[in-house]
Amino acid sequence: MSGNYLLDAYFVNSLSLYNDTDSDTYGNPDAATGTCLEIISGYVNNNLDCNDTLAKIYPGATELRNYLEDDCYGLADDNLTYLHTYQDADDNNFRYQFIDSLSCELPTGYVSDSTDCDDTNSDIYPGAIEILNGLDDDCDQIADEGLSINELQVEQISLYPNPAFNTIQIISNFSEVGIFTVYTHQQVKR
User: Would you say 80 and 104 are in contact if contact means Cβ atoms under 8 Å apart?
Assistant: First the structure.
């Protein structure tokens, strides 16, 4: 049989559908398929999902404090308020300037104050009483300011007899009241 056959040609518009692994109705822009079908199970007709592994992440989702890009706007945890907190190793409610954290809540062992100058000593903090010790107790960058030794007085104390067996006498050149403890030392004979 010979002859001319007229073939009917149909032109179908090809569609792109995008895989929607997490079933949030937003498709993965990197997982497209061309088809002439308008509906394929597991695919959608948009490529707007920025994370197709989690259904709670899609364009317009509520941004949560979770270090993830929930709303697909390009920034993780955007438009949320964070606390800039500082580690307080000596537990005096003042922070150490070099160890900090961004967080949503105040972490245990951290404070919001940022003025501690020595986080290894709980007696050193802003506003502490300055004592004559060669340290900057009040964190104003000056050690022992306003303090001085006016008069150095040598105090002497003597104990006798030495060695003593039952009673000792104490002689001193000062009159301050105090508690004195005397320890005995026994020699071990070898």
Answer: yes
CA dist list (Å): 39 to 11, 17, 85: 19, 8, 51
Structure-token pair, residue 111: 């404070």
Low-confidence residues of the chain: pLDDT under 70? 1-13, 80-90, 92-114, 149-154, 176, 178, 180, 182-190
CB atoms within 10 A of CB 25: 13
Token pair 């149909």 is found at 10
Cα separations in angstroms, 146 against 38, 129, 132, 149: 84, 11, 9, 10
**Using CA atoms, how far apart are residues 97 and 84, in angstroms rounded to an integer?**
12
- The whole-angstrom separation of Cα 91 and Cα 96 is 10
**Two structure tokens written together for 13:** 């518009």
Q: What is the pTM of this model?
A: 0.40
63: amino acid identity, one letter = E
Please give the pLDDT value at position 80.
65
Q: How far apart are CA 78 and CA 68, in angstroms?
A: 10
Among candidates 18, 21, 78, 22, which has minimal Cα distance to 48? 18
**Residue at token pair 């079908």:** 37
